[in-house]
Specification:
2 domains; 8 strands; about 190 residues
């Protein structure tokens, strides 16, 4: 979805579009958790112009499937994406760069102020008159993905010895991990 900033009037602009299942799959494909799209994702956005800056408030939802992080059973995950960003012209962001360096300088207590200014967290840059919203939505979807999805809160996972799903049955394997500090004593035979 592309928006020309000249289209944004004083009342703002509302946009809504669907990302196809294939587009959502392309976004989450590189994630190591193995996410796959369960269907298309609907995106709604409110765009307001603040001088040269543009405020983007958007909401999206993606239905995804992935293997459980403990037992590998398929899990359905609803990923809500809700964000509010200010889009700044690239030349304005470049002009404010020297001030940002001063904010990052040592605070006098041996700690630096971080690698970026706090206001930069909610700001993105754009160039020209057309803003492409798809990369912004893509980034926000990736940030909203749960890091370790599980099928249920009390999932027992897989047996590390035989690989059985411990949610279905107890396999009876000895899963006790011996203390490695005493491992040398196992080789000693008592007479």
């Amino acid at each position: 979805m592309r928006v020309n900033i000249d289209e944004i009037k004083e009342a703002g602009l509302e946009r809504a579009w669907d990302m196809t299942r294939e587009q959502v799959d392309e976004i989450v494909r590189d994630d190591r958790a193995g996410y796959r799209a369960g269907g298309p994702a609907h995106v709604t956005a409110r765009i307001d112009r603040l001088g040269h800056r543009v405020r983007l408030r958007a909401r999206a939802g993606a239905d995804l499937t992935c293997p459980c992080g403990r037992c590998l059973a398929p899990v359905s995950v609803k990923v809500p994406v809700d964000f509010d960003l200010t889009l700044v012209p690239a030349e304005e962001a470049a002009a404010s760069e020297p001030r940002d360096r001063e904010e990052r300088q040592d605070r006098g207590d041996g700690h630096s102020g971080g690698s970026f200014a706090r206001r930069d967290v909610e700001e993105e840059t754009y160039e020209g008159k057309v803003i492409d919203l798809d990369p912004i939505v893509r980034e926000q979807v990736l940030l909203a993905l749960p890091g370790y999805p599980v099928c249920q809160e009390g999932c027992k996972g897989l047996c590390p010895v035989c690989g059985a799903n411990l949610n279905e049955r107890d396999c009876g394997c000895d899963r006790r991990v011996p203390d490695p500090r005493w491992a040398g004593l196992e080789k000693i035979k008592i007479q």
